[in-house]
Amino acid sequence: MKVVLIAAVSLDGFITRHDKPGSGFTSEADKRYLRDILNRFDACIVGAESFRVSRNWMLSRLMPDKLRVAVTRTPEAFADVADPDSFEFTSQSPRAIVEDLRTRGHHLCALLGGGRIYSLFLQARCVDELWVTLEARLFGSGTPFCPGQFDFPLELLSHDSLDRNTLLLKYRPRQGSG
Asked: Where are the alpha helices (DSSP H) in the chain?
């Protein structure tokens, strides 16, 4: 199974603007791009905070053939919205989540954040590609793209313009990176 980290970031490396949750800062080009590409994926992983911020949006778009998994320390706290066919909550490790999805027949999984989830999956070496939309904005503060300290070498696969001010960069981890 292939796991693709998908994120929109400011030029200074933030996935939120200041203390405002969510990705409301992104361009219309990024929003269109995200809507279009998510149709390709048969599974998505998010963190509990991302779920809390986008709960109504996520729950209004559930489909039985596209499993959503939210990573949380307390899956039982979400029992009222969990649905084994479309939305699950788990405290499993990144490797266990990916293996579980693979054994259940999933082939392409979007990792949609937030920053702590990105870091957890990167550190566990559970990310096959990173698709990063770079927005022409500077925030100075916000949620870091990948909080923590690690060195993760990447190889650029492609770069495209989504519009005049928005770039799409696709990377994969370099072989033998540690």
From this structure: 28-38, 48-59, 94-103, 115-123
